[in-house]
Amino acid sequence: MWWKILLLLLFYYNAHATVTPRWNRAMLFPTAQRLKRSSSALVDPVLQNSLDDVDMLFEFLLAELEIDKSLRISIKDEELASLRKAKDFDTVCNDVIPKSITEVRRLSARLSDYPRVLKKEDFERTVLTMVYTAYRAALSRKHQKDSWAESFVSLYKALKHDLMFSHSKKPLH
User: Fold this and answer.
1) Which residues form the domain of 62?
2) Is the pLDDT of residue 166 over 90?
3) Residue 8: pLDDT above 50?
4) What pLDDT does residue 80 have?
5) Spatial distance between the Cα atoms of 148 and 132, rounded to a whole number of angstroms
6) Residue among 86, 85, 90, 68 nearest 135 (CA)
7) Cβ neighbours of residue 111 closer than 8 Å, sequence gap 6 or more
8) Residue 73, phi then psi, degrees to nearest 5
9) Which residue, 57, 27, 29, is CA-closest to 129?
10) Higher pLDDT among residues 23 and 73, named by residue
11) 141 to each of 5, 69, 116, 146, 147, how far by Cα in Å?
């Protein structure tokens, strides 16, 4: 009987240990976790896996982006929009990053308390959220403009802190 209890405790510990990292990741971008569970397709992409990917992301950001009334982001350039990486970009921009000022503020608060270096997907999603926030600030007026601008500054500070934190964690050679 005692071995059943021990086995149950080990199983509980193992299950808890495998669930915890997902929860921590979902904490910053919870929609990514929800989408991944509900689809068998690649819904939780990482945009930057190589230097070419970084260049491509830069091209997407330099291309003319459009945000429609339902807050969907699209690349106006048809040739760029037809690329496979553009589909991943679309997924991250439209299904993962926060779009409301409340969600962006929630992300900023979570980032300010984040105890470790961001994963690369969380870093790039935060950068894309910052780009979206800057765009919304530029299109807004008065109080809304101030709210979006404050959120932009908060995200900038979080990314700056992450870069400084990750640099201080690297060993010197």
Assistant:
1) 2-169
2) no
3) no
4) 93
5) 10
6) 68
7) 28, 118, 126, 154, 155, 158, 162
8) -100, 135
9) 29
10) 73
11) 62, 16, 36, 8, 10
> Quick one: DSSP state of residue 94?
I
What stretches of the chain show up as alpha helix (H) in DSSP?
2-28, 30-38, 51-62, 78-81, 84-91, 101-112, 120-139, 142-169
Among the listed residues 106, 74, 120, the one whose alpha carbon sits nearest the alpha carbon of residue 93: 74
Secondary structure of residue 73 in the 3-state scheme: strand
| Residue from 114, 92, 129 nearest 162 by CA | 114
Q: What is the pTM of this model?
A: 0.74
In angstroms, rounded to a whole number, what is the distance separating the alpha carbons of residues 155 and 77? 28
Contact assessment for residue 103 and residue 139, using Cβ atoms and an 8 Å cutoff: no
Q: With helix as H, strand as E and coil as C, how does 111-152 read?
A: HHCCCCCCCHHHHHHHHHHHHHHHHHHHHCCHHHHHHHHHHH
Amino acid in position 173: H
φ, ψ for residue 75 (rounded to 5)?
-90, 125
Say how many domains are in the chain.
1
